[in-house]
Design a protein that fits this description.
By secondary structure, this protein is an alpha/beta fold. It has 2 domains: 269 residues; 85 residues. The chain is built from 11 helices and 13 strands. A hairpin with a 3-residue loop joins strand 8 and strand 9. The longest helix is centred in the C-terminal third of the chain and has 20 residues. The radius of gyration is 24 Å and the shape is globular. The termini are far apart.
């Protein structure tokens, strides 16, 4: 018999959403005086400056308290653009960068990440120290000790975040710099520390800092760097000269770059290359190019490559690409967990099934290659995976990142003939 409907085409099921992947979602945790109407350790999400202002974070709040809270949020949105999700938490000024970064109680940085539904991709820690004339800040090797000591603690929390399936890059405010570039620690060579998920920011908008007094004048513009990172593609250097100009003359922003010792770049010009070599992040100007750019996308780790060609995540961009791949692969493979698969006579997966499972990862890599986020990627399922007893699928993912033109090294000559 025939069916009088002629043709029946049903709708297939839709798998995990591979487009639900907003790399701009960010967070900031700030040591602050009490903000009216906003409790300490409470996570709130903003989508623009208006939201922040409605929650008591205003220019007047910064001015009356001589702090930089609104400043960081404003700079984030100036660079990331309105509409980008920013998850915000204020903590008491009695906290330190170390207690915030380590978060032993799980009610600060970790709470912020969890409250943000695991979606945060980049996070900044900012601090407004309480001024104490009787017990002024004592520096060690040109840095506030808690700034330097917070680096491995932030790395530990970033590793915890990765294990909880919410990989995140952390920017730390390197406030109150007070030493020559020759004295400060080399962040690319910290003994027993490879903080590939941590970046220390020491740059500031010097002209804005002139409006502050005391320790508030020696802040670092970590909100600026966070905003640029949110605006950047995952494989893009945040110092991309063509894409990211920090200067906005109409808003009097970043007209004069400086460091968190509240000295202009011109005052410490001879030291800037050493700060660059040691992995610090700040604003720079280039002769022949108007405006201010970020010097580079450093992390607090050395550059490593092993005998098999495996590299560590020695730039922010490399780390963001790895994190994004991990998120996408987890999302794509989760629906396949606890499904039933046939095995061959040896109790292993047949070739056809292995290829199907490999295609899931390869399709993600193909999309990223087409978007120029990766150069190449390959998924390989171990044919010896035991799905009968161990019930474990062993998979290897290898990705080749895109390259970055760090600097141009050339020669120029006068020729009598071409």
């Amino acid at each position: 018999m025939s069916n009088l409907d002629g043709v029946n085409i049903g709708k297939g099921k839709v798998g995990a959403n591979r487009l639900n992947n907003d790399r701009r979602v960010s967070a900031i945790i700030v040591g602050s005086p009490a903000i009216p109407g906003l409790a300490f350790k409470e996570t709130i999400q903003f989508f623009g400056l208006y939201d922040a202002e409605q929650n008591g974070i205003t220019p007047a709040f910064d001015e009356e308290n001589n702090v930089n809270v609104y400043r960081h949020v404003r700079e984030f949105y100036r660079n990331a653009g309105e509409g980008v999700p920013l998850n915000f938490m204020a903590v008491a000024q009695t906290e330190t960068l170390k207690t915030i970064a380590q978060d032993t109680a799980g009610d600060k940085l970790k709470r912020l990440l969890i409250d943000s539904d695991y979606k945060v991709r980049q996070l900044a820690i900012a601090f407004n120290p309480i001024e104490d004339e009787e017990n002024p800040i004592v520096h060690v090797d040109g840095l506030v000790p808690e700034v330097f000591d917070s680096i491995p603690l932030a790395q530990g929390t970033a590793e915890w975040a990765y294990d909880q399936f919410m990989p995140t890059h952390i920017f730390i405010e390197g406030y109150n710099l007070n030493g020559l570039a020759s004295v400060v620690p080399d962040l690319r060579d910290i003994e027993n520390v490879e903080a590939t998920k941590v970046t220390l920011v020491i740059g500031q908008d010097w002209q804005y800092a002139e409006t502050k007094t005391g320790d508030a004048q020696k802040f670092a513009d970590v909100g600026t760097i966070l905003g640029v990172c949110a605006a950047a593609a995952i494989n893009q250097n945040i110092g991309d000269n063509e894409a990211f100009n920090l200067t906005d003359a109409t808003k009097q922003a970043w007209l004069v770059p400086g460091l968190s010792n509240h000295k202009t770049n011109k005052e410490v010009y001879a030291e800037l290359q050493t700060f660059e070599n040691k992995g610090y992040v700040f604003g720079v100007t280039y002769p022949g190019l108007a405006g201010v750019r970020i010097n580079n996308d450093h992390v607090c780790a050395p550059v490593k490559i092993d005998s098999e060609g495996n590299m560590n995540e020695h730039t922010i961009a490399y780390g963001r690409v790895m994190d994004d791949c991990a998120r996408q692969l987890r999302t794509a493979y989760l629906p396949k967990i606890k499904k039933t698969y046939p095995v061959n006579a040896a109790g292993k997966l047949p070739t056809g099934v292995r290829v199907t499972l490999e295609t899931i990862g390869d399709d993600i890599f193909a999309d990223m290659v087409n978007a120029v986020e990766l150069s190449a990627g390959k998924t390989t399922v171990d044919p010896e995976s035991d799905l009968l007893v161990a019930k474990e699928l062993k998979v290897a993912f290898n990705i080749q990142p895109t390259g970055v033109l760090g600097y141009l090294n050339g020669t120029i000559n006068l020729k009598a003939k071409q």
